[in-house]
């Protein structure tokens, strides 16, 4: 499975692509950070992010996009910009019929480090080890994008089992309700 990990942001948007192998083996294929000037108008900044992300999707052909879920932030402007960047990315994926999954920062940290409260240095260190990189990815947005992709690769089997269980439960509910209606 090829996963594109995205750490959304208006000033810096981390992008990565990794491929999963047997078990927990993952291989980094590409990583970068899209930067937009803070003095540029919002719609122009979102266009820069959109154009870059669309190029990545068309070039790398990911099977799924893993985006960091926006969490409550003390700075509402930062949270809003992050959400807008994430929305642009999800829209680009939808246009290409690529599945999108959102993961919280604590889910990503727990998956990569074993600690949902790990700091950025711990995440970067573990990403470097897991992917056997020669150097630590910088800035932190690049490491976070790689961590998101790793998290999704490792959580994907559980996500699929949960979806299958939910579908089976829904089907059983429909069957039971149909039997109740027929008995009336």
TrEMBL record:
GO molecular function (one)? magnesium ion binding
According to the UniProt entry, the coiled-coil residues are none
Transcription is among the record's keywords:
no
**At which positions is Mg(2+) 2 bound?**
68
Q: How is the cofactor bound?
A: Binds 2 Mg(2+) ion per subunit.
Superkingdom per UniProt: Bacteria
Where, in this chain's numbering, is Mg(2+) 1 bound? 7, 141
Q: Which GO terms describe its biological process?
A: DNA recombination; DNA repair
Q: Which reaction does it catalyse?
A: Endonucleolytic cleavage at a junction such as a reciprocal single-stranded crossover between two homologous DNA duplexes (Holliday junction)
Q: Which SUPFAM superfamilies match?
A: Ribonuclease H-like
Cofactor(s) needed, names only, are:
Mg(2+)
Look up the EC number in the record and give it. 3.1.21.10
Which HAMAP family does this UniProt record tie to the protein?
A: RuvC
Q: What is this protein called?
A: Crossover junction endodeoxyribonuclease RuvC
* UniProt gene name: ruvC
């Amino acid at each position: 499975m090829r996963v594109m990990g995205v750490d959304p942001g208006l000033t810096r948007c981390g992008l990565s692509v990794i491929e999963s192998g047997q078990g927990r083996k993952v291989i980094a294929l590409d990583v970068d950070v899209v930067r937009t000037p803070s003095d540029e108008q919002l719609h122009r900044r979102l266009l820069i992010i959109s154009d870059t992300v669309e190029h990545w999707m068309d070039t790398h052909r990911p099977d799924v996009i893993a985006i960091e879920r926006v969490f409550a932030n003390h700075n509402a402007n930062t949270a809003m910009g992050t959400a807008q960047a994430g929305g642009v990315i999800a829209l680009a994926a939808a246009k290409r019929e690529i599945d999108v999954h959102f993961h919280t920062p604590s889910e990503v940290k727990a998956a990569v480090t074993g600690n949902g409260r790990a700091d950025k240095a711990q995440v970067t260190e573990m990403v470097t080890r897991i992917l056997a990189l020669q150097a630590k990815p910088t800035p932190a947005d690049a490491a976070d994008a790689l961590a998101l992709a790793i998290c999704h690769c490792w959580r994907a089997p559980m996500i699929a089992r949960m979806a299958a269980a939910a579908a089976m439960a829904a089907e059983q509910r429909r069957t039971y309700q149909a039997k109740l209606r027929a008995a009336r």
